[in-house]
Amino acid sequence: MREMEIHDYARQLMEAHGPRAIAEAAQRATECEAEGKLELAKDWRHVEDALKMMRGPRQG
């Protein structure tokens, strides 16, 4: 997946799942890793990272 696609997908996932979007991406990455789909898992990890950047610093 290209960087632009990753950020677009991360934004859509955030709109659909709200604060659970990061957990959703992490879960999908883990599932892909378990199935041996390493390239797809890598894409999901990139989506997860993009979501974390979108979230910004934690409010304490």
Would you mind describing this structure in some detail?
78% of the residues lie in helices and 0% in strands. With 60 residues, the chain is mostly helical. The chain has one domain.
**Overall strand count:** 0
Distance between the ends: 34 Å
Strand content: under 5%
Q: Structural class per helix/strand content?
A: mainly alpha
The radius of gyration over CA amounts to 11 Å
Topology as a string of helices (H) and strands (E): HHH
Largest sheet: none
**Poorly predicted runs:** none
Provide mean pLDDT, rounded: 92
Number of discrete domains: 1
Total DSSP helices = 3
**Outline:** globular
Helix fraction bin: over 70%
List keywords for this structure.
mainly alpha; 60 residues; 3 helices
